[in-house]
Write a structure and sequence with these properties.
single chain, mainly alpha
Length: about 70
């Protein structure tokens, strides 16, 4: 998977936060609050998934100017 363009990144709500959280899960998993993870899954993941699906749809029909 290629790196997203700055234009794509600015359309993804909480992009940097998602990357940081992934890194924390991968590298500091012993310091994770399960309730916090569940809140993210419940509250943040659905809108993020919808944004990703929209970006993929736009890329499929040629609306995204990705390299």
């Amino acid at each position: 998977m290629s790196e997203p363009t700055p234009r794509t990144v600015e359309r993804i709500l909480g992009y940097r936060t998602a990357i940081d959280f992934r890194n924390r899960l991968a590298h500091r998993y012993d310091d994770i609050d399960n309730a916090h993870v569940w809140r993210i899954i419940r509250d943040t993941l659905p809108p993020l998934l919808a944004e990703a699906e929209q970006l993929l749809l736009e890329a499929e029909i040629g609306l995204v100017d990705e390299p």
